[in-house]
UniProtKB/TrEMBL annotation:
Transmembrane segments: none annotated. It is an enzyme of class 2 (transferase). It comes from Macrosiphum euphorbiae. GO terms for biological process: aspartate biosynthetic process. This is aspartate transaminase. Homodimer. Gene3D superfamilies: Aspartate Aminotransferase, domain 1, Type I PLP-dependent aspartate aminotransferase-like (Major domain). It comes from the Eukaryota. Its cofactor is pyridoxal 5'-phosphate. One of its GO terms (molecular function) is pyridoxal phosphate binding. Belongs to the class-I pyridoxal-phosphate-dependent aminotransferase family.
Length: 403
């Protein structure tokens, strides 16, 4: 008989391993640049004041603790789809746009991957090299046999390898799913230009590929909520059927409430009833139905004009803080180490800076300077502050000189 002790021995990897090491480090110098959580100047996790207001409203107003349906709060999903695509009233009523509340952005990717694998017979997924670490895992756990990374960043020039990207997706078999970061690419901070998006859309249409957008940083790349959906709206206007996983964790600074939405856009709505049933079955088998609190708070903000205005102006302040930190970090590094170019720090967008460090260098920073970051030196910009920025810059230059 099989025993639990027979399971293969494995260790933690990726973000979880780095975070465990950070938690176990007792040094007062330690710096956390690991997860993409928005931090205040004092290092604490920032909570948008409007979220607290909306949460209080939810707590006061929720008298009914009955189960939600597997697809969640319809009004929430509709607002989420609207945030993505603009006016969707008619498309929604016609069953051409449909949303399902999910357990964060990861949950939306999972529901979408299960749906594509089980009901569309998709077996191949393409995602960027590099990408957010869970893309490959989510799709392979959902039965995708072929996981292929398309070229995205040229590691010599630290720019987008657009030729490589086009070549790779041009070779993708029909019905391959292609994951596209809509904005604020994680981890590179490099986004495609509108012209490049147009070309990608042409190739994907020609090759009959299925776009699966992932948007976790809407508004945090350009500072404008609508502008950051440009690529998605372009694909929509080009008549694609596609999916989009939305994470509200970063946009609403609500990481543990796990708020997300999967949007499905289809050409014809005649099959919408069956599509919903398939999605309901997937959700039932995964976690039965989602939770109310976080999604309801987001729904309050998206549907109440006063709360929405407050949210969008605080949101602009968050984007401005990230830009300011980028400038300060670049300056600090340039002052310490003129031997390397640091312009990419202010050229990249969004929450992350990719320092392009080797594994050895990342480890050295951790062991000798108590500074924690993930793969290739990906830094959460807001983990920096005006107290630690010069310490981090000095440590990076020391690491580069010695390794
Ligand atoms: N997609 C990308 C690109 C991300 O960076 C993240 C989180 O870091 C997610 C999805 C997952 O979002 P959530 O935490 O809401 O599951």
């Amino acid at each position: 008989m099989v025993q639990f002790s027979d399971v293969p021995v494995v260790g933690q990897v990726g973000y979880i391993e780095v975070n465990t090491a950070f938690q176990n480090d007792v040094s007062p110098l330690k710096v956390d640049l690991i997860y993409g959580t928005f931090r205040s100047e004092d290092g604490s996790i920032y909570l948008l004041p409007v979220v607290k207001r909306a949460e209080n409203m939810v707590v006061n107003d929720t008298l009914n603790h009955d189960y939600l349906s597997p697809t969640g709060i319809e009004g929430f999903s509709k607002s989420a789809c609207r945030l993505l695509l603009g006016d969707i009233e008619k498309l929604w009523n016609d069953g051409k746009v449909f949303g399902v509340q999910s357990i964060g952005g990861t949950g939306a990717l999972k529901i979408g991957a299960e749906f594509l694998s089980r009901h569309m017979n998709c077996t191949t997924v393409y995602y960027p090299d590099p990408s957010w670490e869970m893309h490959g895992a989510v799709f392979s756990f959902s039965g995708f046999q072929n996981k292929i990374q398309y070229r995205y960043m040229n590691r010599e020039t630290l720019e987008i390898d657009f030729e490589g990207l086009c070549e790779d997706i041009s070779n993708a078999p029909v019905d391959s799913v292609v994951i596209l970061h809509a904005c604020g690419h994680n981890p590179t901070g490099l986004d495609l230009s509108k012209e490049q998006w147009r070309t990608i859309a042409e190739i994907m249409k020609e090759r009959k590929l299925i776009p699966f957008f992932d948007i976790a940083y809407q508004g945090m790349a350009s500072g404008d909520i609508e502008e950051d959906t440009w690529a998605i709206r372009h694909f929509h206007s080009e008549g694609f059927e596609f999916l989009c996983a939305q994470s509200f964790s970063k946009m609403f600074t609500m990481y543990n409430e796990r708020v997300g939405n999967l949007t499905i856009v289809q050409k014809s709505g005649h099959n919408i009833g069956s599509l919903k049933v398939h999605i309901e079955r997937i959700v039932r088998s995964l976690y039965s139905s989602p939770s109310n609190h976080g999604a309801m708070a987001v729904f309050q903000i998206l549907s109440n004009p006063e709360l929405y205005d407050e949210w969008s102006s605080s949101f602009k302040a968050m984007a401005a803080r990230m830009i300011e930190l980028r400038k300060a970090f670049r300056k600090a590094l340039e002052e310490e180490g003129a031997f390397r170019k640091w312009n990419h720090i202010t050229d990249q967008k969004g929450m992350f800076i990719l320092l392009h460090l080797t594994d050895n260098q990342v480890e050295y920073l951790r062991n000798f300077h108590h500074i924690y970051m993930v793969n290739s030196g990906r830094v959460n910009v807001t983990g920096l502050n005006f107290t630690n920025i010069s310490y981090v810059a000095k440590a990076i230059i020391d690491t580069l000189r010695k390794n």
